[in-house]
Amino acid sequence: MSARAEPEAASLRSGAGGALALHATGASLLAVTMLAALAIGPVALDPIAAWRAASDDPAHIILVGARAPRILLAALVGGALGVGGASLQALLRNPLACPHVLGISGGAALLGIVAMIATPLASASALLGGQAALMLVPAAAFAGGLVTAALVQEVAAATGRVSPYTLLLTGVVFNAFAAAVITFINTLADFYRSSGILSWVVGTVTVRGGAWTVVAAATLAAGLVLLLASARDLNALALGDEGAASLGVDVDRTRRHVYLAVALLVAGAVPVSGMIGFVGLIVPHVVRLAVGSDQRRVLPGSLWGGAVFLVAADTVARSVLGATELPVGVITALSGGPFFLYLLRRQGRRALAGEA
Amino acid sequence: MAVRVAAAAAALLAAVGSSDITRAEPATASASPAPPPGGARRIVSLAPSVTETVFALGEEARLVAVSDFCDYPPAAQRLPRAGSYLTPSVETIVALRPDAVVGVPTPGNRPSVERLRALGVNVVLVGETTIADAFDAMRTVGRWVDREADAEALVARLERELAEVRERTAARPRRRVLFVVGHDPLVVAGSGLFIDELIDVAGGRNVAAGGSQRWPRLSLETVVAEAPDVIVDGAMGSEGGAALTAWWEPYRSVPAVREGRLRAQHSDALLRPGPRLAEAARQLEALVWQDSSPPATAGAAR
Q1: Which residues are paired to B180 by β-bridges?
Q2: Does domain B7-146 have CATH number 3.40.50.300?
Q3: CA distance B210 to B177
Q4: For helices A295-319 and A68-92, angle between their N-to-C axes, nearest 10 degrees
């Protein structure tokens, strides 16, 4: 916040008018995608007629009770993952960083699942009331994300100078560990719970009820505020930790803010969608192609971009096989993987060397 | 620790969205040698339905080990374990020197089965997808425990009891039924499964039988559009009815929700195509019709 640092690239397309245009473009793109998604689904219906129909009409309930909440949730989760990926890529100066790759989603899912298994016990023993029990899972996911971020940073720092690749390797190892524990829990779990647990691993946008959506929206807002406040410092970090420090940026504080914000974003997203890959990884790259590398534009751009991408991917996931749903993680990987390779090929080494 | 993971554990893999792997494997007892005179003396059962059948035929003394999921009848819980239904323990089984290992083809146990056969262990695979598969499985088990006539009698009794249920429900108008095993995502019993057939026996029509998958992840919109009259829901399990009502509440246009025919159930008999098939059919009949008295003509017909 105290920093006045602005690398050359940052001044390219900035300014108050630019920010407004960026938000207007992002919001209209998202609105168009969401409206189109409302008209697409396994059950054919006319959204306008369905909206006007009586409140107990099946078409109205499909639109308002099933389809719209799902689209809204996909937008929130996609925005959270997009902006989370962008901020981690800036913080670590590593184009391969995102909540999923670093294991932060895995840590959140791990504790989230433990809380989900424990919730019925807690509410049965009257330790928690109905609504309070609901909050247990996001709270546990937040703790899991934060602890993982701290752990990954700690282990990587213990090897001496924090290399981005050490960090990624630590994240990959932690992900494998989390997946193993989740598989173990699943092996012990009740048959009727198994599909629910496994859906966390694959990544599925799941409408669990209004309270969960409110939590996802609240954590997204909180994380976003925290990150936007750090955007200038993240710009300075493009010069390296020492470079940023020489410009008066408190690097440790910025790092803490970003990890805290990402843990918040993930705590809202993971309980309603599991571990969805590729959104946080590829969206920031596409956004940087469009808006340049100033984090004050990349972060909001990745918010809108992530939301658009996940709403579109989830629309495919819930309609392409008719009545049967596909986990959205399959779609994001299928579309994101080749696209990422295309980006790599197009930009050659610069994509990987990136802003390091 | 309630390891209630029943015979339908194969559904997990289908439920995560992978294709229906179990379908690819034809359930054949081919390549297995004929049972020795007097049947196999040492048997390892790899499936709850097989274990239940061996017990039903009174030949449990032949069982030297069962799978982790074999928890019925209660006496089965005291038998040594031979690994899980999905991944049997090859070493444990070889060490037991069984005359026959009887199991069902699952997505996960194929490598173990091939390994066991390569090591000279006699593995007998039986089907458990449809009711006819289940009856064939009982006859095969009957041959291996030298109780062929009793197995035939068991099948005949089950056929008779299923026919009785069918007879009771025949005069009723069909109710549209959804059989749920998982929420978030919604996983239901689809087509080609014995559960689908049991729903039919119990006087219902499975609204999820349209596709080709046995355990489809059904979209909520499809459920609303299909408008089932009864939802048999095992997903909430022990948490019971209130949680179930709350979960379904937003979808009031569905008759099962609007008219209060959400049925919480947690019976493993409904997931196991074994000697409790007729019991499962009667449970399902009760779940589908518990709010309405039978038509007078059906009672008079007996």
Answers
A1: B188, B233
A2: no
A3: 13
A4: 140
Chain B, 239 to 278: residues with Cβ < 8 Å from chain A are 239, 250-254, 258, 266, 271
CATH number of B172-292: 3.40.50.1980
> Where do the domains of chain B lie?
7-146, 172-292
CA distances from B191 to A103, A108, B179, B205, B212 (A): 38, 36, 11, 11, 6
pTM score, two decimals?
0.80
Equal fold, B7-146 vs B172-292: yes
| pLDDT digit string, tens, across residues A98-137 | 898 889 999 999 998 888 877 666 554 444 445 565 678 8
Distance CA B216, CA A201 (A): 18
Interface test with A, best of B213, B221, B244 (most A CBs within 10 A): B221
- The CA angle B130-B135-B138, to the nearest 5 degrees, is 130
Contacts of A109 by beta carbon, 8 Å cutoff, 6+ apart:
A141, A144, A178, A182, A200, A201, A270, A274, A275
Q: How many residues does chain A have?
A: 356
User: H helices then E strands: how many in chain A?
Assistant: 16, 0
Nearest to A205 by CA among A38, A45, A63, A78: A78
To the nearest whole angstrom, how far is the Cα of B272 from the nearest Cα of chain A? 12
Measuring CA to CA, which residue among B154, B158, B132, B194 is closest to residue B56?
A: B154
Question: What does DSSP assign to residue B232?
Answer: E
* Helices (H) then strands (E): counts for chain B: 13, 9
Q: How far apart are CA A234 and CA A245, in angstroms?
A: 11
ipTM over 0.85: no
Q: Mean pLDDT over residues A21-48, rounded?
A: 94
When CB atoms are compared, the residue of B5, B217, B220 closest to A66 is B220
Domains of chain A: 8-353 (1.10.3470.10)
Measured CA to CA, the distance from residue A321 to residue A330 in angstroms comes to 13
Distance from CA of A184 to the nearest CA of B (A): 12
Report pLDDT digits (tens) over A176-230: 888 888 888 877 766 666 667 777 887 889 887 778 889 899 999 999 999 999 9
Residues A199, B186: Cα–Cα separation, whole Å: 10
Residues from chain B contacting residue A327 (CB–CB below 8 Å): 16-17, 185
**Tokens for A110?**
């791990």
Give the distance from residue A63's alpha carbon to the nearest chain B alpha carbon, in angstroms. 8
Q: Rounded to whole angstroms, how far apart are CA atoms B71 and B272? A: 12
CB contact under 8 A, B16 and A322: no
E strands, B146-264, are 175-182, 187-188, 204-206, 230-233, 262-264
